[in-house]
Every structure is written in C-alpha cells, then in structure tokens.
Predict the 3D structure of the following.
Amino acid sequence: MNEMTLPEPDTAYHFNVVRRAIDIIDAAPAPGPSLEELARALKMSPAHLQRVFSRWVGVSPKRYQQYLTLDHAKRLLADRFTVLDTVAETGLSGGGRLHDLFLRWEAMSPGDYARGGAGLTIRHGWFDSPFGDALAMGTERGLCGLAFASEVGREAAFADMSGRWPNAAYVEDPTSLAPWVAAAFGRTGETRLHLIGAPFQIKVWEALLSIPSGQVTTYSEIAGAVGNPRAVRAVGTAVGRNPISWLIPCHRAIRKSGALAGYHWGLPVKRAMLAWETAAEDARSTA
C-alpha cells in the first residue's frame, strides 16, 4: 500500500519521539526526567528535542511532559469536564468543533448498515499524521474510517477497518481522500464524514462530536446524552467501535475515576492526542 504525505513535514517522526518519551516518563520516578535526561535517553540534543516538541505542539518538552503523565486525565476531569447537556444546547457551531475544523456528516440508514457495506465503494490510503501512520477510508459522501497503526501495525489496522464493512468494494486511492485528511490534521478547511454504524452507535458518535477540543467527558455523561443513563457499558462498546478516530473524538471519553480506560488504537496514542489538544489549547489561550 502506498503512503501519501500531507503538507506538514516530519509529523510521523515527531510522534515517534513522543511515543518513546511516554515510555521514558512512565518508567521514571517523580518528578520525571529533566530536559537533559530526556534528551539523553532519546539520543537527541536538548536543543533538538526542544525544537521537535515546539514544532509539533507549540510548548516546551517539560510542559508537554506534564500533559503526558498518567494523572493528566484526572486533572482534565477536574478542570475541563464537559457536561454534554450544556454543550448540546450551544450546538456544534460553538466549542464542539475540532479546533477551527468544520465537520459535516451524514449517517447511513440502518438497512444499508445491515448489508455490511454492500454496494459501497470505499477508497483507502495511508497518510503521515501527528500520531503516526494513519489509515483513511472514505466513500463518495465523506470519510468513513480513520485508524492509527503505530501500536497495532498496518496490517492489523487495515483488517480491522475493512472487516467492519465486509461486503464493500475496496479501492486504494489516497489522492481522492487527501483533501479531507489534510483538513482533518491541518485543522482548517472542511472534512465530510460518512457515519456507517448501527443507530445506537451513531447516537453515541454524535455525542462524542459535541465534546470540545481540549476537554473530556465520562462514559456516563455520554449515556445520559443519548437518553439511556444506565447503558454505560453499551456506550463504552460503541465508543470503542468508533470508526473515525480523532475526528469523532473518542479519546476525550474517560472514566469517572479519571482512568483513561482502553483505546482501540493503543493507550499511548490516546494519551498523545489528549496531551496534544491540551497543549494546543493552552498555547492559544496564552497567545
């Protein structure tokens, strides 16, 4: 499979540095490694490490390290918890959008979903992203899949995504998807989404779309937002089956305890996404 690189250079390299940094930070005793210690462990100069982090997310390695710690989600829950009923009243035209990205989406009918994608042509391609290798899939209506392979590998990611719609026809065509993917990771422009799922899943994914960037909510909040407060476990399953990661921000759903819980494409990716968004929001607020 071919890979298409988007205009922003070196994003996969930057994420690989961050991925390695997560392991080092997790293994180090509090208060964590200094810039010099982290750079030495990564076999980089402190100045190079500073440039990589600043270019990737706009904050220093030390500040970003604070966002990568395991208790960051607890701090988010305390400081940036989103009550979905309130967000729903303001609509996605407000803070619910992913940065400045405008998302338009439509859902497949239940009957079409039940046919397993029969009659659909799904185009796919690999792209460089801020979170490593990204597999994008889309129909003529918009992106229907976005997966990340840094933890699970390309083969497993493709099998996982294509297995969701086994009766569709798959065509490798990254060029046709590139504008939507560029908008998704560049935070400007327009990305269309084609939600292919069961009705309950789609309700959960729509609730996820209302969580503002840089904030989090809980599975129980999502259950209440979709009208079934006791369906927390079913909500968790639907969140885990979200096919359009990042854009439908399942990484912003955490447990009441502050635990991140599982993430379909690996917890290091989820932590990096939450840290990246927090850092970007903080950088904007202090600009």
The first strand starts at residue 3 and ends at 4. Residues 267-286 form the longest helix (20 residues). Confidence is low (pLDDT under 50) at residues 5-9, 87-102. DSSP finds 13 helices and nine strands in the chain.
